[in-house]
Amino acid sequence: MMERRQVAVCCLVLYFATFFTLPSAAQITDRIRRPDNLMVVLRETVGTNKPAESLQPVGKLKVTLDGQEREFEPAWFFYLGDMSVRFVFDDTNTMPNLMLEDLARLKLEPDQALQLAVANIKRIYGQPRAKPWTQGLLEVVGESSDLNSSYFLDRAFWQDQLRQHPAGLVVGVPKRGGLVFAPVSDARTVSTLRRGIAYLHSSSERQRVSSGLYLFKDDRWTVFQAPQP
Length: 229
Description:
This protein is of the alpha+beta class. The chain has helices at residues 2-19, 100-105, 110-125, 155-164, 187-202; strands spanning 38-44, 56-57, 61-65, 68-72, 76-80, 83-89, 129-132, 138-141, 169-175, 178-183, 213-217, 220-225.
């Protein structure tokens, strides 16, 4: 487990070095830094397989930007399987990452921030809805495809689905715009999802989220099929 976590942290550092710039006043203004702009996204954390859901801080990261080593403590959390939760501010064209100090300034614990962020997504981008997709699978969609995967974090939605399928739900989050599921009682469709999740994930390239499958049952998430190495 420690070796996997080290791999994951290395990948996160690489992400920072490649895609992240130090927030400036121009990037994150007081207009953006408001609780009603708080949102949350799921991202892939290669090399991890966290067996049960919880928000485990990634911790401090050091990267070299513009020739200088800098230290950050982003509001990023290992969550479940190979997925991490990242808090962002919603803006017109960008979604700047939060630092832990932003959560402190908003007086939010991580669990509180998660509930607020999901509520904001539903308020602005619509309630999630399930619709038939292909080969018996159901797809979860809202009004912004980039945030479809975030509905994985909407516990109320899954509780409602669970009332219809009390044996449990098998869920895949292969990419940012893709969130699919099947009742665990539907063995044929679950088998299709087992076989197909690796392709759905790998073919999504830079939009990938998770190569694993997840079970929602008894009001909690667990890993149903481990992420691919």
